[in-house]
Amino acid sequence: MQYQLKSKVLIVDDQPDNINILSYFLVEYGFEIFVATTGEKALQRVEKIMPDLILLDIMMPGIDGFETCRRLKAIEEVKDIPVIFMTALSEAADKVKGLTLGAVDYITKPLQHEEAIARINVHLKLRNLTKQLEQQNTLLRSEVRSRQLAELALRFSEEKFAKAFRSSPAAMTIATLEEGYLTEVNQSFCNLTGYFPEEILGKSDREINLWVNRGDRDRLSELLQLSGAIYKQEFQFRTKFGQIKFVLVSAEIISIGDTNCILMMTYDITEQKLAQETSYRREQEFRALAENSPDTIARFDCQMRHLYVNRAAELAFGIPAEAFRGKTHRELGMSEEVVMLSEAALRAVFAKGTEECFELNCLTKLGTKFYQVCMVPEFKRDRTITSVLSVGRDITAVKQAEMELRKSELREREKSAQLEVTLNNLKSTQSQLIQTEKMLSLGRMVAGVAHEINNPNSFILCNINPARHYFQDIHNLLELYKKKYPEPGTEIQQVARDIDLEFLQKDWSRLMTSIESGAKRIQQIVDALKFFTKLDQSGLKEVNINQSIDNTLLFVQHRARGKGVSKQINGSIISQEIEVIKNYENLPEVACYSSHLNQVFASLLNNAIDALETQPYPRIVIQTELETVECSGLLREGRGYNDLSTGIHPHNPPCQFAVIRIADNGIGMSEEVIEKMFDPFFSTKPVGSGTGLGLSISHQIVVEQHGGQISCISAPGEGTEFAVKIPLRSATCAPQTRHRVRS
Predict the structure, then answer these.
(1) Residue 336 DSSP SS3
(2) What is the pLDDT of residue 446?
(3) Residue 549: Cβ-neighbour burial (10 angstroms; 0-12, 13-18, 19+)
(4) pTM for the full predicted model
(5) Pairing of strands 296-300, 306-309
(6) What is the phi/psi pair of residue 660, to 5°?
């Protein structure tokens, strides 16, 4: 009963009733019962529970009992477990088949309890006896092996071989050929496997579970028996701690005494293998990412040949990956820009081992594209560069957005420039309107003043002749009195002496002549005021230019007096008057806006007077002349002076100009000042002394209103000359401005 309590029985049957009956009476007899309802479940559980005996039904769904038995006997660990078939089959052929497959007995259904228990006990006892016999045989073999090992150890005592064996950096072992018993191991093998020598000597490689794949040991033996030696064959070893090591094994058969042994040399390649696997895994991950990336990805060798391109590169260039491999950009017919930029970057990466990035545009199957390309080196473990990885990102949309932004910025700058020009024009127009309004206001005021002066002056002029006649009559009467009464009374003589009657009679004529002269001068001034303002005229009128200049001089002559450097004369300090020299040519009348043109003359004369404040002998020279030129020649002259001009047709008739030159011997101007002199609000005068609008408005009046020219010739310390040219007819020649500095 003690034996039965320790026994484990696996019942394999698909009938619950049979299982229940068997389990009940087997438990009663002290067996430990395990159940499987199919052959598949039995195969799954048998290695886990390791039963002492298996009761196996033949007729089952799925795999039947015969197939289940065959598979059980094919398993090394359970092949020795006795199997008893349970069946209702009574044919001898069926029994022979079951016994052939490895079964030890049959129990016929319906089961007889006593018979079943007897058969089970018999086979369990037989198995125990077999185990005992095997143990004794093992002990016997161990003793024999110990004697053999002792003999082998004796023969292995050769000093030179032993030293080489022990000191070898490779893991070395000597084992018997047939059984694989380890007779000698070196320290390198112990370091590889984690065992101490005393733990493994005398044991077979199977006993220490050295081979991960059990068939590798048999393959090694077969190769050795065929060729006598193998060289660097790859296997897997299991260490003491269950780690898997990848090894390269070189081995040969040697004879030690009468025993054939295996001398095996093992190299640990685990790190290299793991590195290869890691590299392979990373390569697969890289390819998975690269093939699904929208960026163009390529790999190059040191000769700048393609090693790999992804799907995006194939689609972009319309070239299959096979056509890329082994070829450079130049061999693929890429553009010169792509070839130069790519090769320069590749050379830099291989030379310096650093990342290189650049931008390029190239013609692809999808049109012209912009790419941002980054090239990075790929290193070996020794830090040498194996290849270069190139990633190109399509930035066409970004570039187009940048170009649109630049165009937009350019448009905005142009708008800003236009607005600035418009603003300057508005300022100029505003200043001109202000100046015009001032001139109009001044003209109205002058006209009013002239009118108010003209009225009483007319009274004076109209009454001078009657007054002269009245005095003549009185004079005649006094002469008559002298004749009739030659001796006047004392009182009359006294009054005559008091009033100096004789002087009065002689001076009265001169007095009336002086009054008449002053009144006429006042009349001339009034006429000049009216002529200067021309408020009584509108539009283009034919005007005498010489008279206009004289009328303008009338208004600035008060400034011409007292200008220039002061002089000491007879102990008194007096200011020297500006000498005005007029060289007028007989000019025909000119069609112009007379009041505006008078404004130009006034501005130029005022500027000349201002420039003469520090001159010892101030002088202004005014010259007028008639000039006739060919229009084409005028164009060449204007271009020669690098002026602003518009095109003049070469077939235009000759142009006649009234030329007015106003020159002074003042301080002169520099080239920088001349370049800006016609700009609005530009002035060299002190703050509060000028608006900077005189010359700007003069330029507009001469060039824009009259189609003429205004130019300046000046140099520091050499005076200034302004030349104004007004066409006699309405403007037919192009307006232009000429600036020149006299050398």
Answers:
(1) helix
(2) 67
(3) buried
(4) 0.37
(5) antiparallel
(6) -115, 120
